[in-house]
Write a structure and sequence with these properties.
heterotrimer; A alpha/beta (275); B mainly alpha (212); C mainly alpha (218); A: 275 residues; alpha/beta; D-Maltodextrin-Binding Protein, domain 2; 2 domains; 10 helices; C: mainly alpha; MetI-like fold; 9 helices; 0% strand; Iontro_rcpt_C (chain A); transport (chain A); Bact_solute-bind_prot3 (chain A); Solute-binding_3/MltF_N (chain A)
Chain lengths: 275, 212, 218
């Protein structure tokens, strides 16, 4: 009996601890006004990518992240907080960015994030700041000039698993077969080694690949509309509004166009596409 | 926690099966590979021993994650496309085989060869001596560490989450990122890991005590 | 071949070494913490204080049977849900310490237990106190028994720091990923570099322990 009690007691204790923890698990962190706390601390913490060329890429020499997203974040911070406002950057990935925003590690996400209805259930989006869309990357001099040229039997299109790219290929080039690889690096290597006729994903990502290997170019422009937006926690209307206002001011003053030219001006095949 | 278990049971259950499947496959694979290298390690030829030793030392001193990512990222670049489950299970197999090689080697070295001769001289046939004397001892020596290796495999198979291997950890991350009830999701996932590992762990301890 | 030369530019190597330094730092801090905490817990479990030892033992068993990755996720993504927001470094050290302490505690407990219980009685009947026996007879033998499993546990700890790449801790693995993210040709060279660097650190630790072991034995 004694032994039984000795065994069961800790179990009961632990169980009650777990229940206690799950009881307070729903406490919301986003009750406070992010804009106000940022104004008080004179800094905005942004979640950014560090592995995406043109948008957010770690510069190994300086240990600084550089890219269009980074410059946008800096400019928006200055618009909201004034000249002395500081933009802090925390690196995120596609799978960690929403949890980190929800948890309050970051105040906003600017990380090649497509505005989608599914995501809009979880976060609030600003107005689009980059007109991304699905496009194709081919070898320079290829006969394929746009997605419809791939609509023949035997055409092989490379895509990345878990994205909607494959579905869109089926829509625009139903006769082509799609080979899905696990990430961008693999997909690009597959294209280089001739395992496919074209690689399809967001134009923003493809421009980066084209810049890395100028023998490959983006052709035909975007054939879907999947614009990038800045994400803020739900219920942070003042912050969302401030971000929208900042972007619109930047567009009026020409600063937005200047940043766009700075990062995409030299990219072969970068079509205006409304950007 | 309960609501996560109830609402997301299909995903968690499938994750549990993938975790178990990967662990069992890797256990079988690493038993085979590990035993081969154990015999290399006790070979009479020096250079064969060295090959065995190098294999074991290399894979015991490199993180499982590096080995797994290698199979996931590098192999497709050179040869064929592999999915996360396959890459993860191959990585687990190679990593664990180095530890199993050590276990098996110790097991072989521990069973006294004189016992076989003694049994034979007492009139037992080779088969009888093997079945009644040597084999039971070998099992007693190798089963507990192998059981512990299997527990390690179940825990280590969580690296499949890095390579989209559809295991329990991967499903847990998906649920956490859709429900945002992170603390409860991970508690639920932890509970399911414990269902796999804790009973086995206590059973191994019981065996060790009994056979000591 | 050109890929390798390009990949191992001084800039990239320096960046990898910066990551390696973080790996070593995080490992060292976690080893010290988990040695102290694990040692105390192991003793607490061994001495058998009513209820408390059983409770400690049960918690240790639970933690030991969970994947470290899960504990890491829970620390970094789960705790903020209840109001605690650790940064990547704190979360990594905390999760490693929790997990490794439990592993160390078990090693310590079974190490002491493995020393013949008859020795305690013999020493006591020779007039030594419990503390004296522990200090002069049991522990020195037990510690000798514990060193090999402790060292391989700490080698595991160093290897396990690579898991923290998922919470974007800027350690060796993460830095390697950043480098090959910039140029897909660098993937193979980076994996080779990772294998070599981890091997050197881990092997150095086991080598060091063997040298110490020989010195103590002599």
């Amino acid at each position: 009996m004694k032994k039984f009690v000795q065994r069961v007691l800790p179990l009961a204790f632990l169980l009650s601890l777990v229940l206690l923890m799950s009881g307070c698990g729903k406490q919301s962190l986003s009750e406070q006004n992010v804009l106000k706390t940022d104004q008080a601390s004179n800094a905005i913490t942004w979640g950014v990518k560090a592995d995406t060329r043109l948008f957010g890429l770690m510069n190994i020499k300086t240990s600084q992240i550089e890219g269009f997203d980074i410059d946008m974040a800096k400019a928006i911070t200055k618009q909201i907080l004034g000249k002395d406002g500081k933009a802090k950057f925390i690196q995120v990935t596609s799978s960690t960015r929403i949890p980190m925003l929800k948890n309050g590690n970051i105040d906003a996400i600017i990380a090649t994030m497509t505005i989608s209805p599914e995501r809009a259930k979880q976060v609030d989006f600003s107005k689009p700041y980059f007109n991304a869309g699905q496009a194709i990357l081919v070898k320079k001099g290829s006969k394929i000039k746009n997605i419809r040229d791939l609509n023949y039997k035997g055409a092989k299109v490379l895509a990345v698993q878990g994205s909607t790219s494959a579905i869109n290929v089926a829509k625009f080039a139903p006769k082509a077969s799609v080979l899905e690889l696990s990430d961008y690096a693999q997909a690009f290597t597959a294209l280089k080694s001739g395992q496919g006729d074209a690689l399809t994903t967001d134009n923003g990502i493809l421009y980066g690949m084209s810049l890395e290997s100028p023998n490959y170019v983006v052709v035909g422009g975007a054939f879907t509309k999947e614009p990038y937006g800045i994400a803020v926690n739900k219920g942070q209307k003042p912050m969302t509004k401030a971000v929208d206002q900042a972007v619109s001011n930047m567009k009026k003053s020409g600063e937005y166009q200047r940043l766009l030219n700075k990062w995409f001006g030299k990219v072969p095949g970068f079509s205006e596409g409304g950007n | 926690m309960l609501s996560i278990l109830v609402n997301h049971w299909p995903e968690l259950w499938s994750g549990l099966l993938f975790t178990l499947g990967s662990s069992v496959l890797a256990l079988i694979g690493s038993l085979i590979v590990g035993t081969v290298f154990a015999f290399l390690e006790i070979s009479e030829r020096k250079w064969v021993r060295i090959i065995g030793r190098i294999y074991v030392e290399i894979f015991r001193n490199i993180p499982l994650l590096v080995i797994t990512m290698f199979f996931y990222v590098v192999i497709p670049m050179l040869f064929a496309n592999v999915n996360g489950f396959t890459a993860g299970t191959i990585g687990l197999t190679i990593y664990t085989s180095a530890f199993i090689a050590e276990t098996v080697r110790a097991g072989i070295e521990a069973v006294d060869l004189g016992q076989m001769e003694a049994a034979r001289s007492n009139g037992l046939s080779y088969l009888q001596a093997m079945v009644h004397i040597v084999f039971p001892q070998a099992i007693k020596i190798t089963i507990p560490p192998l059981g512990n290796q299997f527990i390690n495999l179940v825990k280590n198979s969580s690296v499949l989450a890095f390579v989209a291997g559809f295991d329990l950890m991967y499903q847990g991350n998906l649920i956490a990122s859709t429900t945002f009830d992170t603390s409860n999701t991970y508690l639920a996932v932890g509970l399911l890991y414990l269902v796999l590992t804790l009973p086995l762990s206590y059973f191994m301890r019981y065996l060790e005590k009994k056979w000591a | 071949m050109a890929n390798f030369i390009q990949a191992y530019s001084w800039l990239n190597i320096r960046y990898l070494l910066e990551g390696l330094w973080i790996t070593v730092e995080i490992s060292a801090v976690s080893i010290v913490f988990s040695f102290i905490i694990g040692g105390l817990l192991g003793l607490l479990r061994y001495v058998n204080i009513k209820y408390l030892s059983a409770l400690v033992g049960f918690v240790i068993d639970i933690i030991r049977n969970l994947p470290l990755l899960l504990i890491l996720f829970f620390t970094f993504f789960g705790l903020p849900n209840i109001g605690i927001k650790p940064d990547a470094i704190t979360a990594a050290i905390f999760a490693m310490t929790v997990f490794e302490s439990a592993m160390v505690a078990e090693i310590i407990r079974s190490g002491i237990k493995a020393v013949d219980p008859g020795q305690m009685e013999a020493a006591r009947s020779n007039g030594m106190s419990y503390r004296q026996t522990m200090q002069h007879i049991i522990l020195p033998q037990a510690i000798k028994k514990m060193i090999p499993p402790l060292v391989s546990q700490f080698v595991s700890l160093i290897k396990d720091t690579s898991l923290a790449t998922i919470i974007m801790l800027p350690e060796l693995m993460y830095h390697a990923q950043i480098i090959y993210g910039q140029n897909t040709n660098f993937v193979l060279p980076m994996f080779l570099a990772l294998a070599v660097l981890y091997f050197i650190v881990c092997y150095a630790l086991s080598w060091l322990s063997r040298v110490l072991d020989r010195r103590m034995g002599a």
